[in-house]
Structure formats: C-alpha cells, structure tokens
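Input.
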Amino acid sequence: MKKYIIVTPEGQTVAPNADYEVDNLQVLGIVENVRSKDEAIIKLLKENDWIIDAEFNVTEFIIYELL
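Output.
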C-alpha cells in the first residue's frame, strides 16, 4: 500500500509580515493505505467534507507519493 500527500495551489497564505506576498501550496491532507493516486483522492474527499465545502477544485490537486 502507498502513502500520498495532496496539495493545491488554490487559496491564499499570508506571511506574518503582510507586506510580503507568499506564493506556495496548501497541504490538503496525507492519505495512507491506498493503491493509487485516484484512490488517494477518493479517500481524502470521503474523510474531509470541508474540502468540497470550501470549493477546492479537484483538477488543481497535486499528488506526491511519500516513501
């Protein structure tokens, strides 16, 4: 079984000093015990209703396998 981290470029992050604009990725979750990236997305969304409620776009997800 595999482990994945799922991030998105959507949303905003503010630096402690608001004079600086920060471009980065937000971590949506880490998913374990799945066979593929597709299974990871499905499990993440089933276990975290807030992701859909917050209107994150699944097509923007970036998925990395963790070793």
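The longest strand covers residues 26-34.
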